[in-house]
Amino acid sequence: MKPLETLIRPNVRRLKPYSSARDEYKGATASVFLDANENPYNDPVNRYPDPLQTVLKERLAPVKHVHPEQIFLGNGSDEAIDLLFRAFCEPRTDNVVAIDPTYGMYRVCADVNDVEYRSVLLDDNFRFRADDLLAAADERTKLIFLCSPNNPTGNDLERKEVYTLLDRFDGLVVVDEAYIDFSDLPSLATELDQRPNLIVLQTFSKAWGCAAIRLGMAFASPDIIAVMNKIKYPYNVNRLTQEHALEMLQRHTDVLQWINRLKEERSRLSEALARLSCVEHVYPTDANFILVRVTDAPAIYAYLVERGIIVRSRHTVALCGNCLRITVGTREENEAVLTALRDSGF
Ligand SMILES: *Cc1c(COP(=O)(O)O)cnc(C)c1O
User: Fold this and answer.
1) What is the mean pLDDT of residues 74-95?
2) pLDDT tens figures, 4-50
3) 200 close to 52: Cβ distance less than 8 angstroms
4) Which residues have a Cβ under 8 Å from the Cβ of 252 and sit 6 or more positions away?
5) Cα dihedral value 308, 311, 317, 318, nearest 10
6) Mean pLDDT score of the chain, rounded to an integer?
7) 49, β-bridge pairs
8) Pairing outcome for strands 198-203 and 172-176
9) Residues 6 or more apart in contact with residue 284 via CB below 8 angstroms
10) Is the CB of 78 under 6 A from ligand 1?
11) Mean predicted confidence (pLDDT) in 340-346
């Protein structure tokens, strides 16, 4: 890996970050806070939240088997993705490489930041080869984006290829693990100590059932985390979100039960979908959704909408012609989509 100093954008490297009132006061216990122009009434939401989410990171670290200094928390993983562009990619000069198809936010953030986005098609089984991504990269490639399990294809990326890429790419490799809790593979986050160019993204939006609170996680070396913290908004994770996340960590066993139930439903739904006349192929999945190739995706999508059932059409996405992406729901929700498709006449 190139020295981190040379990967960071020069303006970010030079930047003196905003210092908030709560940054400047640290240490000594205090009871009178007249430093941040807050209203003394309406406790507790009158006070600015902890800008570095110290307590939450301390509780999260053992759950994720990382150190608190290896954690960045943001307003969804989307904030982490955007910050990585802003921290490392010089607009109109640097570029990033990503697999295709994959999660659409990487390209949107590249476009917003005016950074060239190079996509490399997966094979027909949605696998990637490290060599192909390395061939698309050059000396101006700062980030390579992987997503495992991948959205919208659902499959885990092959670990051997991920390790090859981490070994051979001299920039940063981002592995988006939004769906890792539904996979049989362990998270790569536990390998951060041996992998200085690895950045792992996770989220509270999927397995943790907290899409509404907007809480995303990035795990990386303390040096990379420090760069992200340097340029983030000072109070990027609000107090209500931090509190709710702490409550969810207390309910970890409930979350594990949801995951198990969803994995059972995923098998049931996959098998039932495969028996439908309108379904041509059910792709194997390691996530909480199933990609299915149907006879006529636009028509079947429209039919389901009419029945009040919303799935995601991926018909226009590379390699996903006539594909629908169906999230695994409750038993009743899954039965509803199966019944509708059975009755459809497609
Ligand atoms: C859903 C999803 C996310 C979650 O994004 P948040 O901003 O944390 O809600 C991240 N990455 C992928 C690939 C996703 O599918």
Assistant:
1) 98
2) 999 999 999 999 888 887 777 776 788 999 999 999 999 999 999 99
3) no
4) 63
5) -140
6) 97
7) none
8) parallel
9) 154, 155
10) yes
11) 94
Q: Which amino acid is at 133?
A: L
Tell whether ligand 1 has an atom less than 6 A from the beta carbon of residue 174: no
Amino acid letter at 261?
Answer: R
Residue 326 alpha carbon to ligand 1 centre in Å: 16
Q: Which amino acid is at 113?
A: N
pLDDT score, position 17: 85
Q: How far apart are CA 228 and CA 81, in angstroms?
A: 10
Q: Is 76 near ligand 1, meaning CB less than 6 Å away?
A: yes
Q: Compute the distance between CA of residue 299 and CA of residue 280 in angstroms, rounded to an integer.
A: 15
CB 218 within 8 A of CB 79: no
**What is the Cβ-side half-sphere exposure of residue 53, based on CA atoms within 13 angstroms?**
32
Q: Ligand 1 pocket: which of 84, 145, 156, 205 to mutate (most atoms <8 Å of CB)?
A: 205
Confidence tier at 336 by pLDDT (50, 70, 90)? very high
Closest-CA residue to 130 (of 173, 191, 186)? 173
Amino acid 112 reads V
Q: Establish whether residue 327 lines the binding site of ligand 1, counting it when its CB lies within 6 angstroms of any ligand atom.
A: no
Asked whether 151 lines ligand 1 (CB < 6 A), one says yes
pLDDT in tens, 179-215: 999 999 999 999 999 999 999 999 999 999 999 999 9
pLDDT, one tens digit per residue, over 262-307 is 999 999 999 999 999 999 999 999 999 999 999 999 999 999 999 9
Q: What is the DSSP string of 164-224?
A: HHHHH-SSEEEEE-TTGGGSSSPPGGGGGGG-TTEEEEEESSSTTS-GGG--EEEE--HHH
Q: Tokens at residue 96, please?
A: 């990033």
* Paired sense of beta strands 323-327 and 312-313, if any: antiparallel
pLDDT of residue 27: 67
C-alpha angle 308-105-6 in degrees, rounded to nearest 5: 170
Render pLDDT for 110-128 as a digit per residue (tens, 0 to 9). 999 999 999 999 999 999 9
Q: Quickly count: other Cβ atoms within 10 Å of residue 212's Cβ.
A: 10
